[in-house]
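so my prof wants the structure for this chain in the tokens format not the other one, which i didnt know existed until like an hour ago. anyway here's the sequence
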Amino acid sequence: MARYTEAVCKLCRREGMKLFLKGEKCFTPKCPVEKRPYPPGMHGQKRTGRRKASDYSVQLREKQRARRIYGVLEGQFRRYFNDAARRPGMTGVNLLQNLELRLDNVAFRMGLGDSRAQARQLVNHGHLTLNGKPTNIPSALPKPGDLVAVSSGSGEKKYFKELRDVLRERKSPEWLQRDDANLAARIVGVPSREQIDITLNEQLIVEYYSR
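here's what i got, hopefully its the right format
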């Protein structure tokens, strides 16, 4: 399966903002965006503020930010958009809801990982169950009423034993009903736009795909 293998901090620098792809490091002075707030590459500093961005460029950058925040490749992102466009309601909000309900993002929102990439790795390695059944598919889309939990065998591993001590410090959105003692959470509803704390203008993404 195709995946991005280069330094993810370059993605944040390219987008000119923190995408919080490295967990705790993003909140420290070690964050490359703090040190080098310009695009990567030998001409990065020269390109900063060089000319006014076109409408297309603004729309493209917003779409790329969304893809990179959630760690989704272009083909899959386009499928999420097409599904969002077919459903009733606002296409942009539907798109963000699709992304939020991915299993790897649910694991991240549960506080099981410092970043979405770490949460995705937990899913890939088979540490999670969906409604009691083992799954290793990060793109699985749980529905309201579904239960996501750490498998009984994985719960005895050192990582998850130590995680119980820090979970209380990690907040989860209202659409998740968390059971910290059992390292589980039930999805109690579809997240509203107000419950999705992502700094994005989803309408620009809709305009990008509608041009």
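also thought this was worth mentioning. The domain at 9-99+199-210 is CATH 1.10.1050.10 (Ribosomal Protein S4 Delta 41; Chain A, domain 1).
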